[in-house]
Q: What sequence folds into this?
């Protein structure tokens, strides 16, 4: 019985639990075995035993930066090594109350700073489609676990693309909700005006179910609003009357194979009744510059608390307090985190604040205005999620700026606070390509419905039966006559 | 654009110790990143309002009702060095 679970979505597994064909405890136990056998370094912690109350739904893999009471929660950083928080993040609590148990904690770029998962303090994660490649980041462990079938579903966080980009590179569905849809309480903070929790799942229906449980206003996060009308199950199979504005198809860095897969998807939109128009977001190219001021500036303030006093390891220093702080922060933070703290501290320092942070906040307004103007003409703004397929481990680590440009297509949405989903739309060079659909604030239900219709039309087979069989089976399934070739 | 002295100044503000080799590398990397960041100056931003946050909310208030927080013992549990009543640290020293 339980071997069948691997091929099922969460919704299908839940139906079997409801029908009494399998118990929630058996389902948990099955996935615990899968997670424990992970050999991609996707997990930093896996539940040791099946809980007495196994809930009512399949268990979930949780990005390491979510605080879970009594469970290691280190945000992928050595500076929080061994930290077991005394409380649980509201988003995870909401899941627990809905009958979802925590299966494990997933690897990530340290403090969510990265686009490849190579900045983890606990080693990189491998992409299950090709182990010599990155799974994307920063929620790379969550994406890889879902893609490899070592988790039925997962949550991550997205600040500049950290859910959507790894979803794209790993061939799974990933959604960044509207800022404020999900509580940030208990999420170890990176950039507070951008961070948002969201689902990484095998299909769009599972993403809708998960977001429905995650969202909600929380008295512990004064910026949270929830999604006022909730999240219905997506059911659309057609896109009649809907207008899709595509942007970014003439960027020099866009790989031809990715462009082909995206163009094939645009053709499918028209096949099922939607209309496609090219649009421009004239200020999108300033998204990366603005983001790499705002996010590091906020991070430099948020990460000031890690000083070896209240939690995490402590370095001795020279015996005085200042050297204890400086040595603890030197030893505990990885290179990328130190780099971003430096950028942020510089940008906020006396004499530079207006030139950097002030300017970036105005650029943020311009980008939001571009998107508002676009939504007067179209229902959704669509693009590739990433200009490239999964890149090789080590390929971009020597050049921080090249790595930052990985977020080109995903950064405008968090800057504007709007929701966006990435769904797998085909393969290029045998590797998954993601298609991004963004909508106005709180249009999650409409985005999910459109993504559902498109997913049906694409028919991407993203559920690996096992990592070993992935090479042979999955690729042959996806490289049908209409699938794009790189 | 960013020289060694600026790197050392910012590192001091951020309470980060950097080795000599890291100072040199950081100067080069930060210069390159800031050069890209400064493409923002191509834009005419005269009269544009800054966006500090995207949610249309002001002054979110709750009822002023006391509720339990973490007790002291729990709050001190994860500290690398704690007494019964607080976090223990060395003297602030001369720096």
A:
């Amino acid at each position: 019985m339980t071997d069948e679970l691997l091929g099922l979505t969460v919704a299908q597994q839940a139906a079997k639990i409801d029908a009494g064909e399998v118990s929630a405890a058996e389902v948990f136990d099955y996935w615990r075995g899968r997670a424990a056998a992970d050999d991609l370094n996707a997990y930093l912690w896996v539940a040791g035993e099946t809980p007495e109350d196994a809930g009512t739904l399949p268990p979930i893999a949780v990005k390491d930066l979510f605080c879970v009471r009594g469970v290691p929660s280190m945000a992928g950083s050595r500076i929080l090594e061994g930290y077991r928080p005394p409380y649980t993040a509201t988003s995870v609590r909401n899941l627990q109350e809905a009958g979802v148990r925590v299966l494990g904690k997933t690897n990530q770029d340290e403090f969510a700073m990265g686009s490849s998962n190579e900045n983890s303090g606990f080693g990189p994660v491998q992409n299950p489609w090709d182990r010599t490649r990155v799974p994307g980041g920063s929620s790379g462990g969550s994406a890889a676990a879902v893609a490899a079938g070592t988790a039925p579903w997962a949550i991550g966080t997205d600040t500049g693309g950290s859910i959507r980009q790894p979803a794209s590179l790993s061939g799974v569905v990933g959604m960044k909700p509207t800022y404020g849809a999900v509580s940030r309480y208990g999420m170890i903070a990176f950039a507070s005006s951008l961070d948002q929790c969201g689902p990484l799942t095998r299909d769009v229906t599972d993403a809708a179910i998960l977001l429905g449980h995650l969202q909600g206003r929380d008295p512990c996060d004064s910026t949270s609003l929830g999604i006022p009308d909730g999240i219905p199950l997506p059911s659309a199979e057609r896109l009649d009357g809907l207008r899709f504005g595509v942007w970014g198809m003439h960027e020099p860095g866009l790989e031809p194979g990715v462009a082909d897969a995206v163009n094939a998807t645009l053709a499918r939109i028209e096949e099922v009744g939607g209309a496609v128009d090219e649009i421009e977001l004239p200020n999108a190219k300033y998204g990366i510059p603005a983001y790499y001021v705002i996010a590091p500036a906020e991070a430099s303030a948020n990460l000031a608390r890690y000083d070896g006093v209240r939690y995490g390891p402590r370095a001795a220093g020279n015996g005085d307090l200042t050297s204890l702080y400086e040595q603890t922060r030197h030893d505990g933070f990885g290179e990328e985190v130190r780099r971003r703290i430096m950028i942020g501290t510089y940008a906020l320092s006396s004499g530079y604040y207006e030139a950097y942070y002030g300017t970036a906040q105005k650029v943020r307004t311009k980008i939001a205005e571009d998107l508002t103007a676009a939504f007067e003409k179209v229902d959704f703004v669509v693009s590739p999620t990433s200009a490239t397929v999964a890149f090789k481990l080590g390929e971009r680590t020597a050049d921080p700026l090249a790595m930052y440009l990985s977020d080109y297509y995903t950064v405008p949405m968090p800057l504007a606070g709007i929701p966006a989903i990435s769904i797998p739309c085909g393969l290029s060079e045998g590797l998954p390509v993601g298609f991004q659909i963004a909508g106005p604030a709180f249009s999650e239900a409409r985005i999910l419905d459109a993504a559902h219709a498109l997913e049906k039309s694409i028919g991407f087979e993203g559920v690996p039966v096992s990592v070993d069989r992935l090479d042979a089976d999955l690729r042959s399934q996806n490289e049908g006559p209409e699938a794009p070739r790189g | 654009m960013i020289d060694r002295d600026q790197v050392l100044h910012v590192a001091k503000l951020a309470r980060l110790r950097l080795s000599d080799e890291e100072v040199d590398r950081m100067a080069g990397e930060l210069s390159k990143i800031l050069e890209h960041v400064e493409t923002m100056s191509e834009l005419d931003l005269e009269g544009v309002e800054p966006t500090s946050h995207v949610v249309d909310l002001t002054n979110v208030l709750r009822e002023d009702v006391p509720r339990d927080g973490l007790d002291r013992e729990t709050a001190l549990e994860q500290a690398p060095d704690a007494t019964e009543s607080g976090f223990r640290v060395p003297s602030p020293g001369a720096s």
